[in-house]
Amino acid sequence: MRRQKRDSSHRAFIKGYQAGYDGRNKASCPHSDETPLAQDWFNGWREGREDNWNGFNAQACQQKVISL
After folding, report:
1. Which run of H or E residues covers position 50?
2. pLDDT range class, residue 7, cuts 50, 70, 90
């Protein structure tokens, strides 16, 4: 049985969310600034930072990542 390819923009968002929640800075983005993947990563990073600042615990953030 073959696996479906993962959507790269969704994966970039999730990785950015995890980086933002963990407190890593924006400069740790693995994509160049002008690509759509970088924008998805930054959007995820912003949402992760916001959840971190709002006091979400790690378990709640893991559930959010799973539901995305």
Report:
1. helix 36-53
2. confident
